[in-house]
Amino acid sequence: MKHIVLIGDGMADYPIKELGDKTVLEAADTPHMDRMALEGINGLATNVPDGMPAGSDVANMSVLGYDPAKHYSGRAPLEAASMGIELDKNDVAFRCNLITIENGDILDHSAGHISTEEASQLMQAIEDELGGDVHFYPGISYRHLMVAQFGADAVCTPPHDVVEEPALDHMPRGDSAEKLQELIRASWNILSEHPVNKKRIEEGKRPANSIWLWGQGYAPSMPSFEEMYGLKAAVISAVDLIKGLGICEGMDVIEVPGATGYLDTNYVGKAEYALESLKDHDIVFVHVEAPDEAGHMGSLEAKIQAVEDFDSKVVGTILEGIEKLSEECTVLVLPDHPTPIAVRTHTPDPVPFVIYPSFNRDADIVKTYSEDAATDGILSTVRGCDLIRTMLSL
Ligand SMILES: O=C(O)[C@@H](CO)OP(=O)(O)O
């Protein structure tokens, strides 16, 4: 038996007035996920344990089979694993966004989804000027890292949680706050004077005129997925968070050309590489960031497009492909967390999941794939970190 887990990051939403009080999942054209819901078994997954932050780090740790309450030690250490950054036991890894501040407000957590090529030039300038007892490492688009030996207990705020709010109201507080604030302030001059940003402004693009530090922590220690579940696992994603999570769990990372972590990602390629990976893996996790980015942008049009692309190009390709496999294969589809358009950030609400086909179980009464329909699912509500075991038990 093979298994495929398809994660539409941030796909779930709330009822939206413009959609006649439907959610994006209810209004978008999603024939493949609807067919799975009709012919499969459904339920709600709680991927964010009570009291924990509703981040993609916590939620995807659940989806990838681990209880965040036991294993979570911060977001950036997971990203560091993907970026090949060895963390000593006293190293504190911080996520270092390149953001846009305008008139003192955090305008954009992604600096207009700056290209990786432009961002790496800016991060090199930051390292040249501010590197020393801290070091900066370039990642994908606006997502970079800083490693320090201080600040593990600082109170830092994800920039995508406070878009259009004054930056000074959300600067790091508590442990080593002064040092962290000094680094952020020092970046303003370095970045605003940089030719990359001068060109971006000439081209009418948002400048990456500040770094923003958050998501810090120490290196995690986790048993491997194979030790936990007895399955050889692979993971596919464009973003270092998910690849790093997979690496920490002993999974193989499968790189897909054209995977961007954005609306223009290589959806079909991710599905095709996933099917191929089943030749030498028992389970593959496929993560698609696009719906989440659309939610953070507050763009209803972009989120509907991202969900429809996920359904037609990822889920559709997978459902067609498993028909040609020489052995049975179950498919689990779910978001990690909602990223509702209305709030432009993550919420901890339970998310709909569907397992297809239901080899040994009759299909339940659910007819379509959505937040509301899933409440009638035969699997009721399952702790996200128990979902893999639930799927394996069917
Ligand atoms: O990568 C990030 O900074 C965040 C916000 O876009 O992504 P996610 O919501 O998936 O954690």
From TrEMBL:
Ordered alphabetically, the record's keywords are: Glycolysis, Isomerase
Stated role: Catalyzes the interconversion of 2-phosphoglycerate and 3-phosphoglycerate.
- What Gene3D superfamilies does this protein map onto? Alkaline Phosphatase, subunit A, Metalloenzyme domain
What superkingdom heads the lineage? Archaea
- What InterPro entries does the record point to? Alkaline_phosphatase_core_sf, ApgAM_prokaryotes, Metalloenzyme, Pglycerate_mutase_ApgM, Pglycerate_mutase_ApgM_sf
Q: Which organism is it from?
A: Methanohalophilus mahii (strain ATCC 35705 / DSM 5219 / SLP)
Q: In which pathway does it act?
A: Carbohydrate degradation; glycolysis; pyruvate from D-glyceraldehyde 3-phosphate: step 3/5
SUPFAM superfamilies, A to Z: Alkaline phosphatase-like (SSF53649)
Q: What is this protein called?
A: 2,3-bisphosphoglycerate-independent phosphoglycerate mutase
Identify the residues that the record assigns to the Metalloenzyme domain, covering every copy. Answer: 1-387
Positions in coiled-coil regions: none
Report the HAMAP family cross-referenced here.
Answer: ApgM_A
Similarity remark = Belongs to the BPG-independent phosphoglycerate mutase family. A-PGAM subfamily.
Biological processes, Gene Ontology terms: glycolytic process
NCBIfam families attached to this UniProt entry = apgM, hyp_Hser_kinase, PRK04200.1
Q: Encoded by which gene?
A: apgM
Signal peptide coordinates: none
Catalysed reactions, semicolon-separated: (2R)-2-phosphoglycerate = (2R)-3-phosphoglycerate
GO terms (molecular function) for this protein are: metal ion binding; phosphoglycerate mutase activity
EC assignment: the record states: 5.4.2.12
Q: What class of enzyme is it?
A: isomerase
Q: Which Pfam families match?
A: Metalloenzyme (PF01676), PhosphMutase (PF10143)
